[in-house]
Amino acid sequence: MHDHTEPSFNPAVMALAVCAGVVYCATHMLNAWLFKYLEFSDHISFLYLPSFLRLVNVLVLGMVWGTLGTAIGGALLLFTVTWQETWVLSIANIFVSAGSAAMAVTLMQILQKRKLALTRLSDLLQLALLNALLNSMTHHAVWSVLEPSLLVNANQLPYMLMGDINGALVGALILRWLARRTPIIALARKRASQDDI
Fold first, then answer.
1. Which among 5, 7, 67, 115 is placed 20 to 30 Å from 34, CA to CA?
2. pLDDT in tens, 50-69
């Protein structure tokens, strides 16, 4: 699955990771504004588009740079007023959000014994489901330890799960369309090939 070459520092790829982080942060804020009526809480929405961006970052930029891109976006959110929480919880949330997509991609590739195809809808849909499951369960496990007050309703885990799935499905369809009809995805993947998934 990997070519076992260590990802080296590349300013162009670092710039892509920073751009991915800015887009992630902006999409989170836009999601909160557009779909406010679908929110269960500040952390849970029935349609969460950034769920898709976590996957895109890893699929396009690779494990290291893609995860870093999501982490940068999470760090940028710390300076917004979208919610109030402790620094420990904020950092834990960033780790979970950034790491869940990489875990999902790794598990999928192990199970399928091949790289994922960005133009294969079945790959993207299965990945979206696995990522949503890992992200929702890990977030709730972290909250139960660090901030039990966030566990306000027995239905919030399935609600978050559906929100991540819905956002990832919408994104998967967009990514598949872009991968098939434009060179954008291929060019970004080529640029980030030091950490090829």
1. 67
2. 888 898 899 888 899 999 99
The token pair at 173 is 């369809």
d(C-alpha 2, C-alpha 21), whole Å: 24
Residue 114: pLDDT over 70: yes
Torsion of CA 42, 102, 191, 169, to 10 degrees: -60
H helices within 117-183, ranges in order? Answer: 121-146, 156-181
With CA atoms as reference, report the closest residue to 93 among 32, 42, 152. Answer: 42
Query: Would you give the DSSP letter of residue 46?
Result: S
Work out the number of other CB atoms within 10 angstroms of the CB of residue 95: 15
DSSP line for 108-130: HHHHHTSPPPTT-HHHHHHHHHH
Asked if residues 150 and 143 have their Cβ atoms less than 8 Å apart, the reply is yes
Say how far apart CA 50 and CA 155 lie, in whole Å.
21
Secondary structure of residue 35 in the 3-state scheme: coil
**Residue 110 identity:** I
Percentage of the chain lying above the pLDDT 70 cut: 82
Largest Cα–Cα separation, the chain: 46
At 20, phi and psi to the nearest 5?
-60, -40
- What does pTM read for this prediction? 0.79
Q: How far apart are CA 109 and CA 103, in angstroms?
A: 10
